[in-house]
Amino acid sequence: MTKNFHLTHIPNRPEQPRESGVTMVMDKGLSLSEVESMLEASGDYFDIAKFGFGTAYVAKNLEEKIKLYKSAGIRPYFGGTLFELFIARNKFTDFRKLLDKYDLDLCEVSDGSIIIPHDKKLEYISKLSKDRTVMSEVGSKDAGIIISPNKWIKMMSSELEAGSWKVIAEGRESGTVGVFRPNGTAHTYLINKIIAKIDPSSILWEAPKKTQQVWFIRLFGANVNLGNIAPNEVIPLECLRLGLRGDTFFEFLPEKIGQTLKQQQDDSEEE
Asked: For residue 172, what pLDDT is reported?
């Protein structure tokens, strides 16, 4: 990772390929030149690229884009909605053939748009994880569907046992469902219940908004797994992770220094 000069009290970030501190970028139809520019500018700071919802069906130069991501050490994959589109048409075998066609080692299993019996979802995860890395998503895209904390925990736990590398906590690209309330704030009670039972390093939190990213970094530290990040927000997010923005400025400074500087600031404001 690029470091143009030295600063103390900057948290350590693992090098690629990362198991923790993973950043997932949402590709909703970037051109080849846009992918090249993003990789040049921020390829060191994200790990996986999701072709959002069903965009892979209509995206131009899909094969070339996949090759670009791979050449930079980024793992591309099709979003869970595409998986569900195949399942809704009873085309699981065709979905596997599609992964083979584009030589994708990473895939997502979700049931955010359609109802899939959980035992069947676990079966899909188990089958796919035999020769691929699987991420499975928990939570509905419909704000009207409420899932109890105990059910979240049970589903996450069983999906990890079935072979998921990470479980994705639904937040959508809007950041207003799943682990978030309709106004975009974190569903604190739900999240605290989940992390009491599920190792946070096994969870990738969809957090498209800066306020949400800040909230998770303050809770879990620099190496929390975050997803649904916009291409132009990768480096701003990395700065949040490292305490290089005002929102997380004091997170990684020694407490004594932080208290002193905050006190000086307060005194200056009083004058």
From this structure: 63
